[in-house]
Amino acid sequence: xxLWSGRFQKAxxxxxxxxxxxxxxxxxxxxxDIKGSQAHAKMLFRQGIITKADEAAIQEGLKEIxxxxxxxxxxxxxxxxxxHMLVESILTERIGEAGKRLHTGRxxxxxxxxxxxxxxxxxxxxxxxxxxEMEELLLTLAKKHAGDVMPGYTHLxxxxxxxxxxxxxxxxxxxKRDMIRVQHAKEAADVSPLGSGALSGTTYPLDxxxxxxxxxxxxVSMNSLDGVSDRDFLLDYxxxxxxxxxxxxxxxxxxxxxxxxxxxFVTLDDGFSTGSSMMPQKKNPDVAELARGKTGRxxxxxxxLLTVMKGLPLAYNKxxxxxxxAFFDGRDTWLKCLHIFTEMLRTATFxxxxxxxxxxxxxANATDCADYLVKKxxxxxxxxxxVGKLVAHCLTENCAIDALSLxxxxxxxxxxxxDVYDAISLKTCVAAxxxxxxxxxxxVLAAVDKGWAWLNQ
Length: 457
Prior knowledge:
By secondary structure, this protein is mainly alpha-helical. Helices cover 63% and strands 5% of the residues. Strands 1-2 form a two-stranded antiparallel ribbon. Strand 3 (191-192), helix 9 and strand 4 form a beta-alpha-beta unit. The longest helix has 37 residues, at 108-144. It is elongated and about 100 Å long.
């Protein structure tokens, strides 16, 4: 018999039970649900709403149920409807009448909202831990490769010389913003809606602040209607997850490109690669490709929940049961991708000579050559045209600018002198870009130091 079946004249249809039930996915909330119930029972006794004996029986019963669920001793049958009803039913079976008093002053509406707040806050902590692990790895690699030259790209064409350390620090900045967004989602989740009841609170003298404190939540919701119908904190997380997966997907795309024979910038560890069932020479970057593909899945989770919430009148509606699968999937996917990508990156080997040669062969120093002429008094537009003609000549001759003799260079502009070779060397080109945020090795190292300071603040 359903715990809410008092006003019904007949049992629900089996099809309705199957359609209505959420136990198959909200069972993962059992720890949060029991934790919330323990705090609620403690408050009910403190407020004189239930007796000490009932509170003691409830606490002992909930403790045993938690232990049994953690040990896998309790099944989650499909006819249990949801995790809240299952826990209460088991509790009542084990301790009798006292179990029926646990729900005093509480609705499943504020109960499930509380569970999701607690679960989302825990999820944010897990996510921040994995993002920090990624950031620490990026800082370590950036410091190691602060002076290793590689080509920077625009339009996927070689553009100007940078360093590998500078490139990696770009992703540090992206994931840093992700951490800030997750921290915001955590703050949004750090609120207790318990006491909102079904929609309008309760006439019992509940101490909402006490319950929030017991649960480690910093505040209580300020409006009972909003308390039971707010899912913004889940949307905050899924939004952060979507942007975070977008950042990860960009990194994945580069690892796919860089590991190809055409680029040859990185060799992925065999432990994080796969082969082909037909082509024996293949080594595929499946981790990067799968994470790139799963990005769309997380986008879908965000859009699903946004769509669920977009037309709902206040307060609680059954539509909101759909928040869980979207949130759980977005959470699981992002955490899994972050973890495996970090380990793939940790074990990858960068081919530094290939990166350097690619920068040199791609005329990455062409802008610096034009700047050299400007410093010799040539107007920039004229210098730009001269170097453009030089590049065309080099393409015909299949050589780099700095491979041309000084006499040949002077055929294009008499402003060229013997110091041009030092001025357009890749090392000089990178070192000269020493503005804040630039790729000069000392700037990269300074950025790394600031990164560590930010992580440890």
